[in-house]
Amino acid sequence: MVAVALFVGWRITTARCRKEGLDPDRMQDMFGWVVVTGFIVAHLYSVLAYYPQDVMRNPLMLLKMWENISSFGGIAGGILGFWLYFRFKGNGISFKEQIRYLDVAAYAFPFGWLFGRLGCTLAHDHPGAITSFPLAISLESEAARRYIRLIYEEAGRRAELLSGAELSRLGVHDLGWDGFLFTAVFLVPV
Questions:
Q1: 153-184: burial string, b at 16+ Cβ within 10 Å, e else
Q2: Rg (Cα) of the chain, in Å, rounded?
Q3: Is the pLDDT score of 128 beyond 90?
Q4: Is the pLDDT of residue 60 over 80?
C-alpha cells in the first residue's frame, strides 16, 4: 500500500504540475528527494521515538531502513526533502515558484495518505482502545484476541483486559482505519 500511495502521489503531482504550468520533470526530481528523505527520517524517527532502549542495545538498528517507519517522521522527512532540494539543487527557482511546487505537493498529499492509511488498516498495526463502537475491529476470533492480548502485554496493561468471553463481544479501535475514514471522508474532499 505504501508503493500504491507513492505511485498515486507521483501521478497526481505530475498531472497537477502540467495543469498549473509547472515543470513535471522538475517535480519528479523533487519527488525523488522527498521520498528518499521521507523514508530515512520515517525510520529514524520511529526507532528513536518508539524504541530508544532497543537502539541503545543495538545501534545497528538505525541502519535497518526496511524496518519500523513512522508516518509523522515521513511527513517531516518529506518536508526536509523539499528544503534540501531547494537548497542544493533548486538554484534559480524563485521563492514564489517554490511555493507553487509545494502547493502541488500539498494538493496530492491527501490522496497518497489515503492509501498509506489503508495499508495501516490492512496490517492492523495501530490498535487502540477496546470498545463496543460499531466501526471497531471485531475481537470475535481467537486470533484477534491473541493479538490484542500481546499488544496489551507489551504495553504492560494486560490486567486491564476483560475475560475471553467478554472480550469476544467487543472490538478494538483500529487507528489506521479511523485515519483512513477521516482522510476519505474529510481530507480528500476538502
A1: eeeeeeeebeeeeebbebbbbbbbbbbbeebe
A2: 20
A3: no
A4: yes
Taking the C-alpha atoms of residue 112 and residue 33, their distance in angstroms, rounded to an integer, is: 17
Q: Can you read off the three cell numbers belonging to residue 23? A: 515543470
pLDDT at 126 over 90: no
Cβ neighbourhood burial of 94 (10 Å; 0-12, 13-18, 19+): exposed
- pLDDT score at 157: 86
Q: Which three cell numbers stand for residue 140?
A: 470475535
Q: How far is it, in rounded angstroms, from Cα 147 to Cα 130?
A: 12
What number of other Cβ atoms are within 10 A of residue 5's Cβ? 19
pLDDT single digits (tens) 67-98:
888 989 999 999 999 999 999 998 889 999 99
Residues in the chain: 190
Q: Name the nearest CA neighbour of 175 among 32, 64, 71.
A: 71
Helices 24-50 and 71-88: crossing angle in degrees, nearest 10, is 130
Q: What residue type is assigned to position 36 of the chain?
A: V
pLDDT tens for 14-26 read 999 999 999 999 9
Spell out the residues 6+ positions from residue 68 whose beta carbon is closer than 8 angstroms to its own: 43, 46, 47, 50, 51
Do residues 49 and 14 touch, judged by C-beta distance below 8 A?
Answer: no
